[in-house]
Amino acid sequence: MPLADKIRPGELSEVYGQSHLLGNGRPLKNIIESGHIPNMIFYGPSGVGKTTVANIIAKKSNMDLYKLNGTSASTSDIKEIIASRNTFSSLNGILLYLDEIQYLNKKQQQSLLEYIETGDITLIASTTENPFFYVYNAILSRSTVFEFKPLTPEEIQPAVERGFRLAFEEAGEEMDIEEGVFEKIAKGCGGDVRKSLNTVELCVISANDGKVTKALASELAQRSNMRYDRDGDQHYDLLSAFQKSIRGSDENAALHYMARLLEAGDLPSVCRRLLVTASEDIGLAYPNGIVVAKACVDAALQLGLPEARIPLAQAVVLLATSPKSNSANVAIKAAVEDIERGITGEFPRQLQNKHYDGEGAAVKGQNYIYPHEFPNHYVEQQYLPDELKDRVYYKFGDNKLEQAAKEYREKIKAAAKKPF
Fold first, then answer.
1. pTM of the model
2. Which residues are CB-neighbours of 72 under 8 A, at least 6 positions away?
3. How far apart are the first and last CA of the chain?
C-alpha cells in the first residue's frame, strides 16, 4: 500500500488543508456533520483531499459506498450499482463516489440522473477539470460544487513529517534527516499531498546509509512540483501573473509564466485563462482573438503535452501583441450592478410578447417598430425599461475597430427618421 494511503485521514479533524471548506462553521463541514448528504461535486487538482473527504462522508453517513473511476467505468458498472437499490445491503441508501467524472460521456452521466433526482443514489463526483465545462448540466444543477485548493507548504509539512516517521518505523531504522528536508519537500510538491508523500517514500528507499539529504529530496521531487517557486509563490499567483502579462502586452513574460504552468502539468488552467483573457482584455479591439485562442486551445487539448505548448505559445504571442479593449467587460459589469441593486423595471410595451391590452391600458396595441423596414435596418425606439431608458453601459473603446463601429452607429442614427 502506498504511503499516502497508509496515513490517509479517517476524520475531518485530521484532513490537511481545505480550511475554507472544513474549518469550524464552514459549509462543507456543517453539511457532513448534519448527516444529510446532498449530491456534491468536488473540484480541484490531484492530491488535495477530495477522495479522503468522500471516504469520511461515506463512513459518517452509514450509506453503502460504491466507487467508480471515470477513466475505466462502463455503462454496465453503473447499471450494476443501480440494480443494487432496495437490497438488504443498501437499506441506508447508496453513496456513489465517482472519481474523474469528466471522463464519462454524456449518455453515461444521464443514466445516473433519474436515480440522483429520486434520491435512490447520492452522488459525490470529483474532477480535476472545471465542472461547469465537463459535467452534464442536469447533474450539475442538482449538485453543490465545492472547490478544493492546492495546499500551502505549511499545511503539507505535518503530513511530510508524519510520513517520514511511519516510513522509517516500517523500515526498522532510525530517522536521519538533514535539516530543511521537510520544508524542501513541502514547498516542492505543488500543493499535492500525495505527491509529497511519494517523494518521502522514495527518499527513505533510496537514502544512503539511512541518511536523507536536501540534495536527495530535490533530486527525487518531480518536475511537476514547479507549481510553487523557490519563494513559495502559489499556483494562483502564477496564473494571475500570466494573465496580467498578456494584458500588459509583454509576450516574453507571458511565455515565461506559461512555461512554468505547463512544466507544473497544469494544461487546463492555461487553456481557461487564455480564453478568459481573449475576451476580457483583448475583446472588441480584435474580436478574432477569441476565435484564434479557442482554436489553439482545442489543438492543445487534442495534442496533449509536450506538443500542446506550441499552439498555446501561438495564442499567447497573438493575444499579448494584439490591441487591447475591456469595453465589453466594463459594460456587462455595469449592467450586472444595476440588476444587483434591483433596478430592472417593466418591459417596454412594444417589446412584450403579447398582443392584447386590458380595458384599463392607457395606450392600446403593441406598437413595435420593425427595424428591417427602415433604411440601414435601424429606427429609433425605446428598448430599456423606463427606469433605465437613458442608461449607457457600453462605451466604445479607443481602438480602430470600435471607433469604426461608433462612426457607423452615429451615421445611421443621424440618417434615421422617427416614424411618428
1. 0.55
2. none
3. 82
Strand pairing partners for 44? none
Q: How far apart are CA 332 and CA 398, in angstroms?
A: 18
Evaluate the omega torsion of the peptide bond into residue 375 and state whether it is cis, within 30 degrees of 0: no
How many CA atoms does the CB half-sphere of 342 hold within 13 Å? 0
Query: pLDDT value at position 63?
Result: 80
Largest Cα–Cα distance in the chain? 97
C-alpha cell at 165: 516517521
As beta bridge partners, residue 99 has 69, 126
Q: Are strands 64-69 and 94-99 parallel, antiparallel or unpaired?
A: parallel
| Alpha-carbon distances, residue 84 vs 66, 69, 313 (angstroms) | 10, 18, 50
Among residues 234, 314, 230, 231, the alpha carbon closest in space to that of 266 is found at 234
Provide the 10 A C-beta neighbour count for residue 334: 14
CB 242 within 8 A of CB 280: no
Give the residues across from 124 on adjacent strands.
40, 97
**CB atoms closer than 10 angstroms to residue 189:** 29
Question: CB under 8 Å to 378, separation ≥6 — which residues?
Answer: 371, 412, 413, 416
Nine-digit cell string for 153 = 507548504
All residues at 6 or more sequence positions from 99 whose CB lies less than 8 Å from its CB, including other chains: 50, 51, 67, 68, 69, 70, 125, 126
Report the 3 state secondary structure along 290-307. Answer: HHHHHHHHHHHHHHCCCC
Map grid coordinates 410578447 to a residue. 353
Residue pair 152/17 in contact (Cβ under 8 Å)? The answer is: yes
Provide the 8-state DSSP code for 63: P
Strand 144-147 with 94-99, pairing: unpaired
Find the mean pLDDT for residues 187-203. 85
- At 232 the pLDDT is 38
Nearest residue to 316 via CA among 338, 340, 292, 351: 292
Q: Are 315 and 280 in contact, with CB atoms under 8 Å apart? A: no
Residue 313 CA to residue 319 CA, distance in Å, equals 10
Q: How many CB atoms lie within 10 A of CB 387?
A: 12
The angle that helices 75-83 and 106-118 make with each other, rounded to 10 degrees, is 10
Q: What is the pLDDT of residues 341-374, one digit of tens each?
A: 888 888 888 787 766 555 555 555 567 888 888 8
DSSP string, 170-202: HHT---EE-TTHHHHHHHTSTT-HHHHHHHHHH
Q: Are 163 and 197 in contact (CB under 8 A)?
A: yes
Q: Can you give the length of the chain in residues?
A: 420
45, three cell numbers: 487538482
